[in-house]
Amino acid sequence: MRCPRCGDEADKVVDSRLLPGGDAIRRRRACEACGHRYTTYERIELQLPLIVKKQGQREEFGREKLRGGIVKAMHRRPIPADTVDEFLRSVETRLAELGEREVPSTLLGDMVMEFLRKQDHIAYVRFASVYREFRDITELLDEVRQLADDESAASGTP
Ligand SMILES: [Zn+2]
Fold first, then answer.
1. Which of 53, 102, 109, 142 has the most neighbouring CB atoms within 10 Å?
2. Which residues crowd ion ligand 1, with CB under 5 Å?
3. What are phi and psi for residue 27, nearest 5 degrees?
4. pLDDT score of 119 more than 60
């Protein structure tokens, strides 16, 4: 690193710390020429594919945009913010690991559906009703009935 005070390129790391969330490291550095201390951040560079929307437009993956959709669906539902952060990180990792240049936006929608289905059924149905654009009330009711069946299966009641 070039010292921001004197411009010398010799420095040593005096402290390294993993940031909460684990996706970045903060380093304190000291310039060996003038002793000035400064901070750098190191992050994993993820090669994320472009998201192809329904009408064919491409856009960059937007973590905050995706968060917005989830937060709206889980309004007043008991899902901790940490859980959502963790999910969003896992989405980025999964996208990067695909190694594709482009993926359909439905892939993101499906990941969110899968996540919300496990977290909270109310939030899931809210998201699903927007995402799947239920054609009529029957389709929505079928979905809700399916969830109810899953719940009773999980709790052991017939
Ligand atoms: Zn310096």
1. 109
2. 3, 5-6, 8, 31, 33-34, 36
3. -120, 135
4. yes
- Residue 39 Cα, ligand 1 centroid: separation in angstroms? 13
* DSSP class per residue in 40-77: EEEE----PPEEEPTTS-EE---HHHHHHHHHHHTTTS
In angstroms, what is the C-alpha Rg of the chain?
A: 22
Helix intervals (H) in the chain: 63-73, 81-98, 105-119, 121-131, 137-155
pLDDT digits (tens, 9 = 90+) for 57-96: 999 998 888 999 899 999 889 889 889 999 998 999 899 8
Residue 35 has pLDDT above 80, yes or no: yes
| pTM of the entire predicted model | 0.66
For the chain, which residues make up each domain, given as ranges? 11-43, 50-155
Cα dihedral across residues 140, 143, 149, 155: positive or negative = negative
